[in-house]
Specification:
Blueprint (H helix, E strand, L loop, with lengths): L4 H12 L9 H7 L8 E8 L2 E7 L7 H14 L15 E8 L3 E2 L5 H6 L7 E6 L2 E5 L10 H11 L12 E5 L1 E7 L8
Antiparallel strand pairs: 1-2, 1-3, 3-8, 4-7, 5-6, 5-7
Length: about 190
């Protein structure tokens, strides 16, 4: 379920770090949007003037959709190890994207060339797992890495390994996302 309320939750989580004045009625919210109580895996991505500024998420459902978005928004804004914590003066430059992930499905493949044919550009998000190493790319990464071969090579590097690791047959999962995004200042507050 994709609804603008997902962006409102992410925005509220970020604003709450700057002031305790941002309050809303959680029970009223759950009455109006019961799907927020259902467990879901989500990612929250922040961009500052079209450049990545934070991205944190869950690959499998383990808490309510509301809680997952709320916590991932806080983590993307203030705890992504690649960036310094978001400052209040940056907010007017921020775009928030919330992605809701489908359940990951393992890809059965013979070798790297076969794997390349089983990946659908622009649609599949991928998870790479091998001997304790793990990485994922949301489908949105296809905008930058347009071929399946390059996408997979960069995914192994994101996990901290060489593309040669595909000779060892790592586990690869695919998933899809439903995503919604908006500029921070255009997202209305939660009520």
């Amino acid at each position: 379920m994709i609804d603008a309320v997902l962006l409102q939750i992410a925005k509220h989580a970020i604003l709450e770090e700057f002031s305790s004045a941002y309050e809303f009625d959680k029970e009223k919210l759950f009455e109006k949007y019961p799907f927020l109580k259902i467990e879901a895996a989500t990612f929250v991505t922040l961009e500052y003037d079209h450049h990545l500024r934070g991205c944190i998420g869950s690959l499998v459902p383990h808490r309510s959709r509301f809680e997952d978005i709320f916590q991932n928004a806080k983590s993307a804004a203030f705890h992504d190890p690649r960036f310094h914590p978001l400052s209040e003066r940056e907010l007017s430059h921020i775009n928030i994207e919330v992605s809701v992930l489908s359940e990951p499905q393992i890809i059965e493949y013979e070798d790297f060339d076969d794997l390349v044919t089983k990946v659908e550009p622009e649609l599949d998000g991928l998870i790479f797992k091998y001997n304790g190493y793990q990485g994922t790319f949301l489908p949105q990464v296809w905008r930058e890495l347009k071929s399946p071969k390059i996408f997979l090579e960069h995914l192994s590097m994101k996990a901290g390994l060489s593309p040669l690791v595909y000779e060892e047959h790592p586990e690869i999962y695919k998933y899809r996302v439903q995503a919604i995004n908006e500029d921070f200042d255009k997202i209305p507050p939660l009520e």
